[in-house]
Design a protein that fits this description.
This protein has 283 residues and is of the alpha/beta class. The protein is built from twelve helices and eight strands. The protein starts with a strand and ends in an 18-residue tail after the last helix. InterPro entries: 3-OHacyl-CoA_DH, 3-OHacyl-CoA_DH_NAD-bd, 3HC_DH_C, 6-PGluconate_DH-like_C_sf, 6PGD_dom2, NAD(P)-bd_dom_sf.
């Protein structure tokens, strides 16, 4: 298990690639957008060098890790010889199914295939493949190199061997894992989306400011980040897609807050756009 491929070079994809490279894997990071790939390269190089400067990792390890990452827009090259493939693209079921159908055709028979989805059904995706037993969800958390958890979600046909292998990969990445039986939103996303949505409703209703809502949960409930800060970090468009999916599958209590819908329509997507519930310096 040495060849690790990541599909999608956004926030989660580049974070997974970063972590895999520092864990000793040969990494291929794929994206159809060359600009996105270059942004991912700049981010990974900057963050790794910063970690070396602060003494978290050695300069030699960073040098080796940076050399182990290939940035490519060639899908076939990414799939070829892969031992592990993690997909980290938009939360869109049709897009994910299309990607995994292509991976199914082009990856070696032994490849572990995993989606980084935070809400969607691995059973539904796996059913489209010739090897649903080799497929599951591995839900990483942002920022990947700092967060210790991976949720491992088995689909209906996921084999015990595949779950065990996913746990081994997680351990090599320096993570702890929890095994979850598939249900919309799994464990963490169901809770996060409910808390975040209620925080947005309170902001819309004028209960308190964004700053005070976040401060109350951080200091009163010991959350490491406030729910509105976290939504800005995840991306409000991503959060809205998650809420819409959970609303469709789990019902009324997951109806997206109207303020969230309004912000996404206005292009206020959080950190990545420079403005969400808070304002950010785009640099």
């Amino acid at each position: 298990m040495k060849n690790f491929s990541v599909i999608g070079s956004g926030v989660m994809g580049r974070g997974i690639a970063y972590t895999a490279a520092l864990s000793g894997y040969e990494v291929k990071l794929h994206d159809i957008n060359e600009t996105a790939l270059e942004n991912a390269r700049e981010y990974i190089e900057k963050e790794m060098n910063k970690s070396a400067e602060r003494g978290y990792v050695s300069a030699e390890k960073v040098e080796t890790a940076l050399k182990s990452i290939t940035y490519t827009a060639d899908f076939e090259e990414t799939a070829k010889n892969a031992d592990v493939v993690i997909e980290a693209v938009l939360e869109n079921m049709d897009l994910k199914i299309d990607i995994f159908k292509r991976l199914d055709e082009q990856c070696p028979p032994h490849t572990l295939l995993a989606t980084n989805t935070s809400t969607m059904s691995p059973t539904e995706i796996g059913a489209q493949l010739s090897r649903p037993d080799k497929f599951l969800a591995m839900h990483f958390f942002n920022p990947v190199h700092k967060m210790k958890l991976i949720e491992i979600i088995r689909g209906l046909d996921t084999s015990d061997e595949t779950v065990a292998l996913a746990k081994e990969v997680g351990e090599r990445l320096g993570k702890q894992t929890v095994e979850v039986n598939e249900f919309p939103g799994f464990v963490t996303s169901r809770m996060n989306c409910l808390i975040g949505n209620e925080a947005m409703n309170m902001l819309m209703e004028g209960v308190a400011s964004a700053e005070d809502i976040d401060k109350a949960l951080k200091l009163g409930l010991n959350h490491p980040m406030g729910p509105l800060e976290l939504a800005d970090l995840v991306g409000l468009d991503t959060r809205l897609r998650n809420m819409e999916y959970l609303y469709q599958t789990l019902g009324e209590k997951y109806r997206p807050c109207p303020l969230l819908i309004k912000y996404v329509k206005a292009g206020r997507l959080g950190r990545k756009s420079g403005k969400g519930f808070y304002n950010y310096d785009k640099n």
